[in-house]
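dumping this here so i dont lose it again. seq + smiles for nicotinamide-adenine-dinucleotide
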Amino acid sequence: MTDLDLTGRKALVTGGAQGLGEGMAHALAAAGATVVIADLQDDLGPKVAESLADSGGSGHGFTHLDTTDDANWESAVAEATGLLGGLDILVNNAGIEITSLLVDLDPAAARKQLEVNLLGTALGIKHAFRTMRPGGAAGHGGVVVNVASVAATIAFPGIGIYSGTKSAVERMTKVAAMEAGKLGYGVRVNCIFPGLVPTAMGAGLANDVAELGLFASPEAAVGAVVELTPAGRLGAVDDMADAVVFLASDASRFVTGAGLPVDGGMGM
Ligand SMILES: NC(=O)c1ccc[n+]([C@@H]2O[C@H](COP(=O)([O-])OP(=O)(O)OC[C@H]3O[C@@H](n4cnc5c(N)ncnc54)[C@H](O)[C@@H]3O)[C@@H](O)[C@H]2O)c1
């Protein structure tokens, strides 16, 4: 057993029905955790939850969650905690990206990104703290991993609001870590800054910035990202998933309030 071993740990992964969240859920299961996926997608989510046993363990599950809804968080966390018999790990991964130049800003699209990326993550912290802190339904501390973005650390055109929400996630991560420490919750809170990964969101962004005329084509947009990346490639789902396992595990036991770039060096 290494410090990366998560045997016996119970994890909730938001936005786990596809993309990075799906990969994170599989990596946590492979490391020994039992995982509940929480997502809006009631069709895909349960299928992914069922497939987690292929990576390891049993007893994985799915619960419906709209991360922008406080009452839904309360019921989803209660359901997951009951199903798992506790809660040690929350991965606040659910997020959306709506590409737009600031000069064309649509307030509704901006509010939606703020709601999902910032409020949704904040509500996750709230309900994880209430459940994990002493006296909570799980009650013996734990770990929160928030998913920010390399967009919080660079200036990429076309994602002004999205970048702002992810910068806010970084700052909120630090405040959350401080509150958890001061109040004796026994919860570490960190975030990662993923580089561009060609999930539905990542591929969509490359198309959108080309459509906005910021790059000659989606391929040119991807090429520009790779050019800015010392590691010389795009990110892969597993790159992000392994970083989440590290931050969820005892291997990072003295790490809290940190933001870990997982971007091949793009954001340095
Ligand atoms: N893909 C990238 O290049 C990239 C880079 C940096 C950061 N990120 C971040 O990683 C996270 C995952 O991105 P992805 O590429 O897998 O995106 P994706 O669009 O492929 O998947 C996002 C998932 O979140 C779910 N979701 C969206 N809104 C939700 C809500 N309100 N409640 C519950 N679930 C909701 C969706 O149903 C979907 O399953 C996001 O926070 C994103 O901002 C992605």
